[in-house]
Amino acid sequence: MNGAALQNATPTIKQASSERETSSKDWDDEICDEVDAREIFDLIRTVKDPEHPHSLEELNVVQEHLITCNDTENYIDIKFTPTIPHCSMATLIGLSLRVKLLHSVSNRFKVDVRVTPGSHQSEEAINKQLGDKERVAAALENPQLLNMVNQCIWSTG
């Protein structure tokens, strides 16, 4: 996004999955259905990569099977897999996922966003940053960083 040399200039692109089919029951406000991993995946799959014009789903950074969602315990856990083990954008990707969910799901949910175990050299440091509410809040006070996050979560096409 910033014109600098790309860390992963030729990432592997996968075909995005199709949207979940819906029925009239899905749009009936009288029916209460549990939030599940597919619903969370549908919310985050279109988040854009900070370096490439592709979604995190297309880059295989987010995958439905790496999402745990427990509606009754109000808990969502997302693991994401950077395209390369030394990706300098991993924290920004995790922050973008967290912000997307802050805007999209009820605040009753405790949300954890973490790097998939073994997928990044700085996994522990990134997970610590993403799990620290004060650090996340401070990062979002930085206008330049907030702009980058917004470009990732609100971009289309």
Which properties best describe this structure?
157 residues; alpha+beta; GMP Synthetase, Chain A, domain 3; three-stranded mixed β-sheet; 5 helices
CATH architecture: 2-Layer Sandwich
Strand composition percent: 5-15%
The level 1 CATH classification is: Alpha Beta
> What's the β-strand tally?
3
Poorly predicted regions are none
Q: Which structural class is indicated by helix and strand composition?
A: alpha+beta
Count of DSSP H/I helices: 5
**Tell me, what's the shape?**
globular
Mean pLDDT: 88
> Which sheet architecture does the biggest sheet show?
3 strands, mixed
Helix content: 25-40%
Structure in words:
There is one protein chain. The protein is α+β, with helices and mostly antiparallel strands. The protein has a single domain (34-154), classed as Fe-S cluster assembly (FSCA) (GMP Synthetase, Chain A, domain 3), CATH 3.30.300. Helix content is 33%, strand content 10%. It contains five helices and three strands. The protein has a three-stranded mixed sheet with strand order 1-2-3. α2 (90-104) runs parallel beside α3 (123-131) and α2 (90-104) packs across α5 (143-154). The longest helix is centred in the middle third of the chain and has 15 residues, at 90-104. The mean pLDDT is 88.
